[in-house]
Design brief:
This protein is an alpha+beta fold. The protein contains 3 helices and 4 strands, in the order H-E-H-E-E-E-H. Helix 1 runs parallel beside helix 2.
Length: 135
């Protein structure tokens, strides 16, 4: 039978619950001067929802709010709404210390794709995978 039905929260997907929570956070970021940091912002979210969330913040955040997030989703490097001076890579040095480097300081020509350069290993910050077969 068609109609509207209430679905208990425990039956919702993790992504739906996460996005509902992020919508609340977004509301506060837009309405107040706030700094919010989110670790692994892409967790449980479809890429389109992640991109939409960031675009909503950028388009509507006319106050002094800032959104600081970490992600493993390299698809954001393909998006033109992400400025190069806002992207930082982290990589461990030989002493095991985490080093930050800004994408805009890496000398990548403005016509070259950061996504492709990263995939080709030209920007560093890639995990060491090792060989495919175990001895």
């Amino acid at each position: 039978e068609t109609g509207s039905y209430l679905l208990p929260e425990r039956a919702e997907s993790r992504g739906t619950i996460r996005y509902a929570g992020m919508a609340t956070v977004l509301y506060h970021l837009i309405r107040e001067n706030a700094v919010l940091s989110i670790d692994e912002i892409e967790s449980s979210l479809h890429f389109d929802l992640l991109a939409y969330f960031i675009k909503l913040f950028l388009a509507n955040g006319d106050k002094q709010s800032q959104l600081l997030f970490t992600t493993h989703d390299i698809n954001l490097l393909n998006e033109d709404f992400i400025r190069r001076d806002a992207v930082w890579f982290t990589e461990k040095n030989t002493a095991g210390e985490t080093v930050l480097e800004r994408l805009s300081g890496m000398g990548l020509h403005k016509n070259l794709s950061p996504y492709n350069a990263y995939r080709q290993g030209k920007l560093g910050a890639k995990p060491f995978i090792g060989k495919m077969f175990i001895d």
